[in-house]
Amino acid sequence: MLFMRRFSGVAGVLLVACGLLSACYMGPDPIQYGALAVVDGKATAVVANCGKESFRVSVYRDGGPMNEFYSWYVKVTPASPAREVEVELFGKERPGWEIDNDERVIVTSTGTHKYVQIKALDPAYVYVLSSAESGPEGAMAPAVRFTADDLASIGPGQVMVPVDHKHSKIVPRESFVTGRCG
Question: What's this model's pTM, rounded to 2 decimal places?
Answer without folding.
Answer: 0.79
